[in-house]
Each structure stands twice: as C-alpha cells, then as structure tokens.
Design brief:
The protein is an all-alpha fold. The protein contains four helices and no strands.
C-alpha cells in the first residue's frame, strides 16, 4: 500500500512543476508527429475523408469533381422534373376538385328546382281538383236552386 501511494505521488504532477509538465507533453506530441511520414499522414487523412482515396493528382481530382458535379446536376434536373410533374398533377387535381364542387352545386340547385317544380305541379293539380269540386258543388247548388224554384 505504501509503495502504491509513493508511486501515485511520483506520477502526480507537483503544483510548482506544472508548466514543465505541459512542456513535456508538447514535446512528446511533436516527437510523435515527427515519427509519421507524409505517406502515413495521407493514409490517415484518406481514412477520415479529407483526401480522395483514388487520386493524388490535382488534374484527376478536378476531373472527378466535374464528374460529380455533372451527376449532381443530372440528379437535380430529374428531381426538378419530378417536382414539375407533381405540381402539374396537383394543379389538375385541384381543377378536377373545383369542377366537382361546381357540379355538386349545380346538382343541388337542380334538385331544388325540381322540388319547386313538383310543388308547383302538386299545387296546380290540387288547385284544379279543388276548382273541379267547387264547380261541381256550385253546379249542384244551382240545380238545387232550380229544383226549389220549380217547386
């Protein structure tokens, strides 16, 4: 236990020597960077995607970038065409919906007109019936009066 405590004390930086410890850390980092070669650094950068994997030549990279831009343009154009088609379909669907609404209104108005016409016809028929019955009653009354007058 005492040895462990002594080791912990030896490892722990002393408050007075803190600047010296950071200098040692910086020196260690620089030593590690010196150990890397340019090829190793390129491999690391390729691994995290900062350098293209397949090309190291600037001209090849530019050509690859142009190819990617062209494919991206084509994809964007396809998406824009799809969007235009969708807008056209949406507009035609809206037009159809509006036409259906007008047809629905027209049908409702037609039904209302038919109801009014049926009501008028019924009123006419009832009126004619009433007229006919009234005429028959008047005729009977006339005959009755004539019969009374005859007596």
């Amino acid at each position: 236990m005492k040895r462990k405590r002594e080791q912990d004390k030896a490892i722990a930086p002393k408050p007075n020597n803190e600047p010296q410890a950071t200098k040692e850390k910086e020196a260690n980092i620089h030593d590690h960077l010196d150990e890397f070669s340019w090829d190793g650094l390129k491999c690391i950068l390729r691994g995290i995607g900062l350098i293209y994997h397949s090309t190291d030549n600037v001209v090849e990279r530019r050509e690859r970038i142009r190819e990617l831009e062209n494919t991206n343009r084509e994809r964007i154009e396809k998406l824009l065409n799809i969007e235009r088609k969708f807008k056209d379909v949406r507009a035609s669907a809206d037009d159809l919906f509006k036409e259906l609404e007008t047809l629905n209104r027209t049908v409702k108005e037609g039904v209302e007109m038919m109801k009014c016409m049926v009501d008028r016809l019924v009123a006419r028929i009832v009126g004619k019936y009433e007229k006919a019955t009234l005429k028959a009653h008047f005729k009977l009354l006339k005959e009755y009066k004539q019969g009374l007058a005859f007596l």
